[in-house]
């Protein structure tokens, strides 16, 4: 199916099917309705590239400059081209919609996701967002502008209350979203985790139904951030169409059906939410992207690399060149200083993480450009609070990184079974979407093996850290 009539389809849906549509099927797909030939629409992070459906050992993707870098180009035509390239990447990952761009206002250096956003200036943020959205959607892929609204800190992200005056809310925080809506019309919005003036945005009737749909006249689909839906009745009444991810944490199907049958939630309200989702699906299907399609790296071309380099080059803003210091002369003695020179932050974590087609570091790039290894390096200040990436200093017969062997039992068990044997390049990985082949439960044990050759003789300590259970 590549098209359908929304009103006719709504009339054919059963109550159970309508309720199922109000949350994702899994982490990345809308719920299909196979009886009516409505397929599963795929979503993909994120703000600086299209990762695909996996965090752990994801298919390599084009890594774009972060939002702040893109905003620093001051070039909306270039950003629209960037958005179009994102749509091409989405097609190669089988994704019908991209969860980006991020359109929040940078209010300080401690915002955990500040790098995703374009600027502290609301006009630049809005016009940059509009350009990216236009580029994505002209490529037939839906854009999801986020995180609506006042999502500018990560401290207690699900409970923090952003207290904002009406004037500041209108003139600073809402304005970028308003500009993007006016000049690009993104097909979906993602609500923020936080509260605004005491009410979670995902259940704020004032912001969703009042401002976004009422005052601005926008008619797309609104989804929650991942695990950012906090109620059944309030979120549906406020205008939140889709809970993410699935299986739903809040909108459990039996509970929602019970509330509808008890007339706690009016059926016309459910139909309104489902209609918005169906319109989103209708747009997504027109892309011709197959449902549950494969993910590939065929867009890893010289042309893609050249454009990504141009984006990064144009993001550099020279404020002052005192004494004609730049450009550096090849005959000068050069020192490279800083922890990022050897271990660069190529991308952020979480939704901004991906597996780049290509990456290097400043130190190696300078040496290559100069054609010499005679470049001094110093760590400078220490900025890493977590353990360093072990994959940078160990190796296997295949190169940098280490072997991971996955077992059903711990190392001291005699009859343990190995599920998988793989090679990874980094010790910093996310496993919550990984399930070993052959495993019957979400419990497994990792043996990590690699060769370490120290640069200096001495005693070395190897440590491991884990977020979550281990």
UniProtKB/TrEMBL annotation:
Q: Give the enzyme's EC designation.
A: 3.2.1.21
Q: Which PROSITE patterns match?
A: GLYCOSYL_HYDROL_F3
According to the entry, every stretch annotated as the Glycoside hydrolase family 3 N-terminal domain falls at: 34-279
Q: Spell out the InterPro entries in the cross-references.
A: Cellulose_deg_GH3, GH, Glyco_hydro_3_AS, Glyco_hydro_3_C, Glyco_hydro_3_C_sf, Glyco_hydro_3_N, Glyco_hydro_3_N_sf
Q: Any idea where the Glycoside hydrolase family 3 C-terminal domain is?
A: 316-382
Domain of life, source organism: Eukaryota
Catalytic reaction list: Hydrolysis of terminal, non-reducing beta-D-glucosyl residues with release of beta-D-glucose
Q: Identify a single GO molecular function assigned to this protein.
A: beta-glucosidase activity
What PANTHER family does this protein's entry cite?
BETA-GLUCOSIDASE, BETA-GLUCOSIDASE-RELATED
Kindly provide the name given to this protein in its UniProt entry: beta-glucosidase
Query: Which keywords does the record carry?
Result: Carbohydrate metabolism, Glycosidase, Hydrolase, Polysaccharide degradation
Q: Please, one GO biological process term?
A: glucan catabolic process
Q: Which family does it belong to?
A: Belongs to the glycosyl hydrolase 3 family.
Its pathway, per UniProt, is:
Glycan metabolism; cellulose degradation
What Pfam families does the database record attribute to this sequence? Glyco_hydro_3 (PF00933), Glyco_hydro_3_C (PF01915)
